Amino acid sequence: MCGCRLSILLLLTCSGCGGVFSVQPLSDDSNSVLDERLFGQWQGEDADDKLCTLTIHRKPGTKATLEIVSECADDEPRGRRVERTIAFVLREHYDWLSIQSEAKGDQRPMVYGVARYQFHSPDRLGVFLLDPKVLGRAVERGTLRGEVSYSKVEPEPAEPDGEPADEPRAQPEPVEKSIQNVVLSDSPQRILEFIRRNGDKSFQAEPVVLRRVKPPAARPDAAREDAGRDSASALIPAGAVFVLIAALLFVAAVFIRSFRQHAVPR
Description:
11 strands; 4 helices; single chain; alpha+beta; eight-stranded antiparallel barrel
């Protein structure tokens, strides 16, 4: 099973963890940035996360939409589970990822996981997930519009203390609620403004760290461009030689004509 924090990055590819989602992506194909630094094959650095591999490339036929192909170890007989999703990149104060996920349940809309990312080196990437507690409290206070889901934290069972059965026992502590999942329905502008005001407090302290294990494959169009440039480079020397020969022939013809005109007859 995938590690929980990487599961959030994959938007419930491996179920069982909560997170922060938005009904709208922070950007779309029309205003996203194509960050080719993200291209290639990635794995998490944690032991559990190495069970999953992410391959990121531009989705064919789009201007700046990323396609993420996740391949995770599974308990099924076939052994691997492959899923695809799309993502958008926005550069506004931070580098943002909006990753599409189809929410669980037939009556719930598609949502987008929101996270910021930062390169520690060309092949090492940190993804900072939003903190459900911070964003959930903002929804509870009415600062942001959205819905909050809770998980119950059951109190520890009381140990037998040897009291007589007819003695009244202490009442158990009330069940605590913990914010597990937040779905924001506010506008991307209001969400970004809230995060700008709160800064790093909006994010979980520890990032999901990914390491590139395979560079991106060469694009066919790029290969054709390189081949065209190589052909042009090969043609330049041949063209220069042709021009030089033509110039020498022209000079020789002019010299011969001038010699004949000025020659003294015998």
